[in-house]
Structure formats: C-alpha cells, structure tokens
Amino acid sequence: MFDKISIENKNLAKYITTIVGINEKIDRHWDELNINFIDIFECDDQIYPNIKIFGTIGVSDHPNRIEMNDGNLKNIPIELLICGYKEFDMLSDILTIAGFFITKKGWECQPGSVFMRIVDMYYEDSEMRHIIFVSPFLWQGKLKPLDLSTKTVHWLLCIPISDNELEYRMKNGASALEDIFQEKDIDIFDINRKSVI
Prior knowledge:
197 residues; alpha+beta; eight-stranded mixed beta sheet; two-stranded antiparallel sheet; 4 helices; SUFU-like_domain; plasmid; Suppressor of fused domain protein
C-alpha cells in the first residue's frame, strides 16, 4: 500500500515517524462509501511501550484556509496527531473522522480549534467528548514544519476534552484551557481521564 502514496507524502511519513515513534506501520482508512481515504500511521512510543501514536498522512494535500489578522485567508497545510494508551484501540478512527472533516467538509483547523462530539462517537462512556487541537508540544524542539516542493506541512495534536472543558474554552479561550491542563498535569493519553473543570 505504501507504493500508492505520493513521493512527497512518503517523505512526510518518514520524517514524522522518525521523530515520534518506532515500529511504524501505515493503514488506509476509507469513508463509508469507499470513495475517499486517509492514510494513518501508527507507532509505538520510543520510551513508554504502553503508548501508541497515530498520525494522518495526506490531509495536507487538501486546503486548510485560515483567516489571518488582516482578514485574508491563507492555506496552512496540516497533518494531525493523536496519542494514547494501547487499550484505547479506536484512536485511529477518531483521527480518521477528524481528517475527513477537513478533507471532505472543508473545516478549518488551527491551534485552539475544536471538533465537537468526535470522541463521543467511539467512547460513549467517557467524560471526554470533543477534540481540541494544540501545537504538538510532546515533540517540542524536534518536530518542525516540513518544507516539501508543493507544501509546507504543520502538525497539530488532538487532545480529548470534556463538555465542561469545552465550555471553559468557549468562555476564556484556548490558551486559558491549556494553562489549566498544564497546571493540573492532565494525562492526555487517557481517554477515560476525569474532567479538570
């Protein structure tokens, strides 16, 4: 299947998997009509064997138009990352749905964006319901934007959040919520963590 990926996206996959994990493999995830697909890589964490890292390959081929301070739209190609304990075996499905919202529905995605009810689709019993996108701080200093011939790719990390955390973000902003997460030292790998708000 890897030979069906563009050369640029092969380079992208090699770059990201070398930084975030080991024992990488790539699977193709199709939509319900088997028309559109997103490739998802899976890695083991290099230090903690009970943590898996997943990421999209190819979302950056699609527009992600972000409104700038001057009101103009700028395309900022992105790929998505999510990580969690191995017991949470539907993380790649959450990532796939998030990717399709961008590639098929044209949703914009940047730090602080929230895709609502996306966790709830797979983990109904969890307090975590939504995804907020943040800079990939786990690899700070290592993971930088990747310049390719047709695009410069940026990465965003998906963090599951609760209804109360979403409400706090809507009232106070994404930075304020991230500050609380840092202060409380939340376990971002645990879909079943308790809400901190």
